[in-house]
Fold this protein.
Amino acid sequence: MSETAIAAEAVCANYINGAWVASHSGRTLERRNPADLRDLIGYAPLSTRGEVQEAIRSAARAFPAWRSEPAPRRGRILAHAARRLEEQKEDVARLISREEGKTLVEARGELGRAINILEYTAGEARRLKGETLPSELPSNFVYTFRQPLGVVGLITPWNFPVAVPIWKLAPALVCGNTVVWKPSELTPFCSRRVTEILVEAGLPAGVLNMVNGLGEEAGDELVEHPAVVALSFTGSDAVGAAINAKAARQLKKVQLEMGGKNPVVVLEDADLELAAENTVTGAFGSAGERCTATSRVIVVEQVADRFVDLVARRAAKLRTGNPVDSGSQVAPLVGREQFEKVIGYLEIGKHEATLVCGGEPGSGADGVQGFFVQPTVFDHVPAASRLAQEEIFGPVLAIIRVRDFDEAMAAANAVRYGLTASIFTTDANRVFQAAERLECGMVHVNSPTVGGEAHVPFGGIKGTGFGERECGSTAIEFYSELKVVYVDYTGRKREGSLY
Ligand code: UN1
């Protein structure tokens, strides 16, 4: 279809200065249901830098009034948004499934998390606290309090098109910042819905601006524009590093949440059934398209054959298929680019390791064409191979065999990422030793590598994370500035001095 033939209403609008406005770039990206390529959803506009600048100006104008709004009132808007999202939950879950491809069950899970974040952050509005400190000086009162940063730029991915934007937007807004949000161009209809819900909940014009577009154009304008004082980004480490390098020149505050190569460590004393069950959940849930997905298993040789067998049996039973059907357990990948990348890794894996199951594209309902990949397990994966080192973001699991606990810790840490790790063991000492030694931001014991909660900080170290953690109390720290105030109430010239 030529660009001119696209009906205007099929293209998502941007939301700038309290109004839905069509992009005038004349460029769009087509979005089809990844489970059924016959289903055309619509188009994302690829907005220009000028349109992003307009959104930034709108956010800057709205800032003085929004920062003066009492925080509990800002929080109430988030509480309204939580209720709206709850009311629309089933409908939004279907939209996520259709546009991003995850199963309906997974989409409902994502929305449950988004609602929790809105509720939690609404409560945080009443707890934006500072501290009081004693001074060495007589009759001096010292206190700290938090202030907003200004206009913040948010750049979000497609794999959690509602929850991740909300976990950035909610704390940014509650702290009194105004926002320009550049969502992924692959999920424009979910982004539109998130914006609608927040706006209908009562956000004043200009406080939230949403501009669709490409990272290298619309996103880059946010990174480079001097009026944007802070950036929060979730996506690949290559893009994150580039954002940070540019933002550093203007000393912008930056928060990056990037890739993962998360291991499950299975020791000889583990409950192997439990370990296999949780490995499969972590590796193949959301088709492996989450930064916390399990992509490596590090298993001690003594139990490796038994463990691999248990995993393979479970993986072989999982069915790909239409994500809205309750019988489908493995969702399609989000789009062609991701699909081709993952298929490429299947070929790499066949050369580097031993294929245990899967290894081919999967099929949709009744042979409908979609971006399905069979859940795939490779065994005897060399620790330095590409399969063991690179983030695949698909339903592909690499099994690495080691001799003992020490070797397991070394293998777990021998990647450039550090988001999550799980350990399966019944030895309490090993649990605490592993918690200390694993180089990552989040450790799970006898449970999958995925998942988190609204009030718990989320993020990683090494090539995964930069800046404060998202969610929980650390999100408030990122989106606000701490100010220290000294009040001398002696009413006379200071006696003594401070150094
Ligand atoms: C989770 O597994 O807890 O992009 C959610 C991502 C993450 C969200 C993961 N930021 O996959």
In short: Residues 3-258+464-483 form a domain with the Aldehyde Dehydrogenase; Chain A, domain 1 fold (CATH 3.40.605.10). The chain has two domains: 3-258+464-483, 262-445.
